[in-house]
Amino acid sequence: MGFKNFCFKKSLWVFHFGGASCNNCDIEILDCLTPRHDLERFGILLVGSIRHADVLLVNGAINKRDKERLLEIYNQAPKPILVVAIGACGCTGGYFTESYTFAGPVDKIIPVNAYVPGCPPKPEAIIAGIVKLVENS
Amino acid sequence: MAINVFYFLVFPGLLFTAIAGAFLSWFDRKITARVQFRKGPPVFQPFYDFFKLLLVKETILPKYGSPVIFLLAPVFAVFGAVMAGVFILLPLLNITTGFRGDLIVIFYLLTIPSFSYIIGALASGNPLAAVGGSREMKLIMSYELTFLLVIAGIIMKCGQHFDLSSIIQVQQAGSPFIGSISGVLLFIVAIFCIQAKLALVPFDMPEAEAEITEGIFIEYSGAAYALIKLAKYIMFFILPAFLVALFMNGFRIEGTGILWAVLKIFAVVLIMTLIRNTNPRVKIKQAIRFFAIWMNLVAIVAIIIIAFGY
Asked: Contact A7/B40, CB-based, under 8 Å?
């Protein structure tokens, strides 16, 4: 189990699900992969297909249409998969909590392993969140 | 019999090519990172990726598709890559001399991985995988003739020898083929052919991750995807090794010859990596035109130059 867990921690491939987002969190997530922060140092890659993913990043408020898509994406993912909620909207709903299209924060829909609050969170905060996720998984 | 199993599974075969190819794949990623002013992944990153996919992740079978063929395709890909690797590396390392005409066998074995990717993609029942499979098929049709012309040029240049060990011996007795005008032309064509065979960036439309999200590999997960990664690592080592055998007088496994052998492989991989980092992805139409007109033209010019003896 030790070797398996070590390999899993060393090569986390990330799939990015953007809900009804204002695009600020998306840009901050992409900033993590740029030369200044370079997440590939830790083996983290952005993949295009959920079948290859180990981490599901969810940002933005989840509205009623997004809820079905998020559930479908989560069910299509190969287990084990870690879920990270990014930004105030992903963690709690933020500004959109009272909206009539809001379908609950991410952890009401799928189990969440880590929360990175902020509007938007800095890339350093996202990296710190992923480091904590890796240490505790 | 036992020695053949050893050849296939351990020394020039599966284990050796997989480790060497994983290391070269790290080299490729590290050079890419340095080109983009990043730090890049650690040395054992390809091993972590492979063992994570093999041991940890779940393998999901497609609902609308053929699960048996879907799972067999990566096995065929690894088998073809390892067989080609054994046939290339045995003469290259001076273990045995191969047989007459093994160049043709190598040429056909090298296409097995690409064909198995197509079969696996079409068996997955995913429309994006079907798009990727059709693009891979068009790519094969465009580069195979060019690659065959390169091999024909090499055969003409070394004096009608159809086996790899004679080609290496002719070069080691005289001068390496890359030292002549025709050799340089053929080498340029061959570099673009293996770039397309490995689906690296100017010709990566079968697995274009931005538009069709990994294309032919979209439905693979877990152990099946690990086998595909393994086949890719092996191809990443044996195709540069094949070019070294055809153009740069092979390996001499003694003294400083080992250092030279490693440097030759690194040089070929470095050229491929720099091409992939400085070019955008072309459309499939442009790729077919590039190979069918320009690269074939260059190869034919090289063959004509060889006929005049340069």
From this structure: no
Sign, Cα dihedral of B110, B92, B242, B11: positive
- Among chain A residues, the shortest Cα distance to B58 is held by A78
Containing A37, the helix (H) or strand (E) segment is: none
CB atoms A3 and B219 under 8 Å: no
**Cβ–Cβ of A54/B52 closer than 8 Å?**
yes
A-B Cβ pairs (cutoff 8 Å, strict)? 84
Q: ipTM, 2 decimals?
A: 0.85
What angle do helix axes B222-247 and B67-92 make, rounded to 10 degrees?
A: 30
Please, which residues bridge with residue A102 across strands?
A63
Total domains in the fold of chain B: 1
Range of the domain at B107: 2-307
**Residue of chain B nearest A10, judged by CA positions:** B48
Does B274 score more than 80 pLDDT?
yes
Kindly list the domain boundaries of chain A, sorted by start residue: 13-123
Asked whether the beta carbons of B90 and B158 are under 8 A apart, the reply is: no
Query: What CA–CA distance (Å, rounded) separates B268 from B43?
Result: 19
Q: Using CA coordinates, name the residue in chain A closest to B213.
A: A48
Find which of A5, A11, A38 to mutate to test the B interface (most B CBs within 10 Å of its CB): A11
Task: Give the residue-averaged pLDDT of B35-58.
Answer: 87
Tens-of-pLDDT digits for all 137 residues of chain A? Answer: 688 888 888 888 888 888 888 888 888 888 888 888 888 888 888 888 888 888 888 888 888 888 888 899 898 888 888 898 888 888 888 788 888 888 878 888 888 888 888 888 888 888 888 888 887 76
Closest partner CB to B222 (pick from A10, A35, A78):
A78
Task: Say yes or no to pLDDT of B266 above 70.
Answer: yes
Q: For the structural domain made of A13-123, what CATH number should be given?
A: 3.40.50.12280
